[in-house]
Specification:
Length: 242
């Protein structure tokens, strides 16, 4: 009797399970669309996500430029505002500086001194060939010429450090004309991030005026959880999710 009851219970459970598995839910096409259900066939993938992390966009340090006043002076012109796109060589600011005048004057003095020393050297070489002067005098003239050339090179470097470009230095050497205005130009194609000065302000040497950035290349800094660091290796692909 007990065995018969067990068989009957087992048969009843089996029939119930069969009826549950056999039950189907009908969904109309409109319901499928409303629910956002998408049908697709399984497909092979080449890349499988092994770790996830939050990220932030940063500018590479080599692409950030801080434009500062090379010399102490008065800011008389600011031509770019925050958010502006600027091109390499574009004028950003102009500064009137007495120190800049001094640099130019010292450079021109060195230019003329070197020219004179070179002329004397050529003359003494000719006089030596003609037997008019002794070799010792030519040696002294050669020494003065080397010293003059070294001083000219030094003054040229000081002008470059002082904010004058190579083309402007050549023009100054050719025309021998001093200018009290120092021009600050953009070093590359960039975007103005910050403006840190105002027109009419007196600025000391190396006072920041602009901060620029070349946005043609950006980095993603990832904050990876400690337990996921082991799953990351050099050369792995990184994908951005919305």
């Amino acid at each position: 009797m007990i065995l018969g009851k067990r068989l009957l219970a087992g048969l009843t459970i089996g029939l119930l399970c069969h009826s549950v598995h056999a039950e189907e839910i009908a969904i109309e096409p409109q319901q499928v669309e409303n629910l956002g259900i998408t049908l697709a066939s399984p497909r092979a993938v080449e890349n499988v996500a092994t770790a996830s992390a939050t990220a932030r966009v940063v500018i590479p340090p080599s692409n950030v430029f801080v434009m500062a006043t090379p010399q102490t002076g008065l800011i008389v012109r600011l031509d770019a505002a925050v958010g502006d796109d600027v091109e390499a060589g574009q004028v950003l600011a102009e500064i009137e500086s007495p120190d800049f005048l001094t640099l130019q004057r010292d450079f021109l003095d060195a230019v003329n001194e070197e020219r004179l020393a070179r002329s004397q050297l050529e003359r003494d070489r000719q006089l030596l060939d003609e037997g008019i002067i002794a070799g010792r005098r030519l040696q002294e003239t050669e020494t003065r010429a080397r010293v003059s050339a070294a001083r000219l090179s030094e003054q040229r470097q000081l002008l470059r450090i002082g904010g004058l470009g190579a083309d402007d230095i050549r023009i100054l050497e050719r025309d021998q004309k001093l200018s009290a205005t120092l021009t600050i130009r953009a070093p590359a194609n960039a975007v103005v991030l910050d403006l840190m000065a105002v027109t009419g302000e007196r600025a000391e040497a190396m006072t920041p005026i602009y901060r620029l950035a070349d946005l043609s290349l950006l980095w993603l800094e990832l904050d990876v959880a400690e337990d996921q660091v082991g799953a990351i290796a050099p050369g792995m692909k990184v994908a951005r999710s919305a």
